[in-house]
Design goal:
By secondary structure, this protein is of the alpha/beta class. It has 14 helices and twelve strands. The strands form three sheets. The protein has a six-stranded mixed sheet with strand order 6-9-10-3-11-12, sandwiched between helices. Bound molecules: adenosine-5'-triphosphate. The site of adenosine-5'-triphosphate (ATP) has 12 residues, from strand 2 and helix 10.
Length: 544
Amino acid sequence: MKFNLISFILDKLGSKRNKVLAAVIFAGITNGMVMLVINDVAKDFNEINFVNLLFFALCISGFMYARRFSEYNTQASVQSAISERHLAIIDKLRKSSLSQYEKIGKMSVISNLLDNSQIIYESSRILVHVSTAGVMLIFCFGYIAWLSTIAFWMCAVVLTIGIFTYKKAQRQVVELYHEYQAKDAEFYNALNHFLDGFKELKISRERSNDIYLNEFTANLHESVALKLRSEKKVVTNTTFIQCLFYVLMACVVFLLPQLDEAEPSVLMSITAVVLFMSGAIGLLVEAMPLVMKADIALGNLDKMESRINQAMECEQLNRPGHFNDFSSIRLSDLTYNYLDETKNKMFSIGPVDLTLKRGEIIFLVGGNGSGKTTLLKNICGLYSASSGSIHIDDRVLQNDSYDDFRNLFSIVLTDFHLFEKLYGLKNYDEKSINDLIARMKIEDKTYFKDGRFSNLDLSTGQRKRIALIVSLLEDKPIMVFDEVAADQDPEFREEYYRVILPELKKQNKTIILVSHDDRYFDMADTLIKLEYGKIASITRQDHE
Ligand SMILES: Nc1ncnc2c1ncn2[C@@H]1O[C@H](COP(=O)(O)OP(=O)(O)OP(=O)(O)O)[C@@H](O)[C@H]1O
C-alpha cells in the first residue's frame, strides 16, 4: 500500500508542515504523559499531590491545544487543496479535446470529483488522530522499555507479528475494494442512463423493470457482496489485531512476572500502560481501512487527472489573436476517424477537399449517419483531423491555434445546451435581446431580464430558437447550425431560411448548416452532399 494520503497531506500543509508535525508529536507525548501522571498518582491515593495535579492539567491543556491546532490546520489545508484540485481538474477539462472528453464521460468526472474528495477530506481528519495515537504509542513503548526490557521485547515481538500479518491481509482488502469500485462505476453508468432516459423508462414498464432488476438490483447485489467480502476481511484483520493485543496483555500479566524480577508495583505500572494503549490501538485499527480508502481515492483522482492531461496534450493551448478574420477556409485531404478502445476504425470521414468562403451559405446534406455532424465538428475545430489540414487563408491550422480558430465560430448543434446566463457576453442590452425573442415569436414564453432568460422550460423548437438568439448575439464570423429548422413550424422555417439566413449573409457571415429541408436547398450558395463519410457532390448556386 502506498501512503498517498500522508504524502498528500504533508505536501498540502506547505509552510505549516513542521508546526503541524510538531503539534501532532506534542499532542501524542502529552497524551502519554497523562498516563505517567496517573501511574504516579496510583502509587499513593492517600493525599492530593498538587504537583501531579498541576502537571496533569498542563498535559491535558497542551494536548487539547496541540490537537486542535493540528486538526484544524490539516482540515483547512486539505479542504483548500481539494477545492483547488477540483478547479484544476475543471480547468484542464475545459482545455481538453472534445473527442477525449467524450471518452472520459460525464459520470466518471462527477463520481470522481464528489466521492473521492469526500473520502479524502474525512480521512485526513482521522489521520491526525491516528498520528497522535501513534506518537502516544511510541511514547508508551519508550516508557515500557524504561520500566522493563523484557516487557519491551514482548511488546515489540507481538507488534511486529501484528503489523506484518495485517499488511498482508490488507492487500487482499485493497484488491476487493478495487473490484467493488469497478462495480460502482457500472452502477453510476446505469444511473446516468436512468436519469437521462427517465421519460423512456416512465413510458415502458418492461424497460423500467428490466433496468431496475437487471442493472440496479443485480449490480447493487454484486457490489454489496464484494463490499461485504472486503468488510469481512477488514473485520477479521481488526479482530486479529485486537486479539493480538489481548495476547500481549496475557503475556504481561501471566508471563512477565515469571520472567522479570521487577517489583509488583512496576509490573502494575506496565499493565496499566498496556491498558492505556488499548484505546489508541483500537483507534489505529478502526482508522486503517478509511486511510486505505483515501489512498485509493487519491490514486483514482490521479488516474483521472492523468487521463485529462493526456486529453490536454492532444490540444495544445493557446495563442490568442492568431485568427481574427478570414476570407476563405480550405480543408485539404482532411480525414477523421472514430476509433474504438482497440484503436479500430468505427467510422471515418474523408478525405475531404473543400473551400468555404466568407459571406456564403453552405448547406451540408445527406442521409442519416452520412457524417454531416462529424464533418461540422471538424470544420469548427471541435475535433482535430486524423490527417490532412485546414488552411485559413494562407495559414495552416496548427495544434496550438485550435482554441483561437474555434473562436471564429458560434454553433448550435443537435445536442446543444442552453446555459442559464449569457456567459462570455458582455456588451448586450436587454431590449435588443427581448426584440430578438419577439422576432422568434416566443415573447409570451420567456423574456430576458437581469442577465438571464426568465424561462428555459420550453419545447424543443422553442429552445432551438433561444440557441439561435444566443448564436446571433455572439456575432461570430461563422455560424454553424445543425438541423436548427427541424422541430420548427412551417412559418418559422420560412422565416429562418428565407429571411434570417439572407440577413446574416448580408452581414458577411459564413453560415454552414445541416438541413434535410430540400424545399430550401435553393438558398445555399454551396450545396455539399455527403455519402458514407465522403463528399458525393458539391453544387455551387449563383444568387446574383
Ligand atoms: N462519438 C462517436 N463515436 C463513434 N462513432 C460515432 C460517434 N458519433 C457518431 N458516430 C458515428 O459516425 C457516423 C456519422 O455520424 P454523424 O452524426 O456525423 O452523422 P450525420 O450525418 O450527422 O447523421 P444524422 O443526419 O442522423 O444526424 C455514424 O455512423 C455514427 O454512428
